[in-house]
Design a protein that fits this description.
about 160 residues; alpha/beta; 4-stranded mixed beta sheet; two-stranded parallel ribbon; globular
Length: about 160
């Protein structure tokens, strides 16, 4: 499907390098059910495909509408990222985490976009760190994301994360 879509877009002169999937559910517990892993990268409900760069989960309400607006707007993402990561140290040259704690012992991952692909590949202990990762999210996502990610990853509400 992705290859066919990419071919049609290229024929029309539209070069696309990133393909993302958006899943809309009634509430965050749907994301938990989707990610209940029975085998590597698949569950009874859902299979994670590496054909997509991201697999975003949003709720079918005003918070999901707002999150979709952020997903589609890189400028909004950058503003939210700056606020959420205030007080953390910029990462070393990597794509696996977004910042480090001031003591450099824990990686920090922005999870507020609720990218299920990222969560499926997230390890509690990333190379070079003594302590487990921290995932930052919105308050309404906290419990669902904590149940999705590997223990002992700590999930926290990010700065400004109670306002979406």
């Amino acid at each position: 499907m992705v290859a066919a879509l990419e071919q049609v877009l290229r024929l029309r002169g539209i070069a696309v390098e990133v393909f993302s999937e958006v899943i809309i559910g009634t509430k965050m517990s749907v994301a938990q059910k989707l990610m209940k892993v029975e085998t590597q990268h698949s569950s009874r409900y859902f299979t994670i495909s590496d054909r997509y760069n991201n697999i975003f989960f949003i709720t079918n309400d005003h918070r999901g509408d707002a999150l979709l607006g952020v997903i589609a707007d890189q400028k909004k993402q950058m503003e939210i990222n700056r606020q959420a990561l205030d007080g953390f140290i910029p990462p070393l040259d990597t794509k696996f985490y977004d910042a480090m704690t001031p003591d450099r012992r824990r990686p920090v991952v922005l999870g507020y976009l609720c990218d299920l692909f990222t969560f499926s590949n997230l390890s509690a202990y990333l190379d070079g760190f003594e302590e487990p990762a921290i995932v930052l999210c919105y308050d309404y996502q906290l419990n669902a994301i904590q149940s999705i990610v590997e223990t002992p990853i700590e999930v926290r509400v990010m700065k400004g994360g109670d306002t979406i």
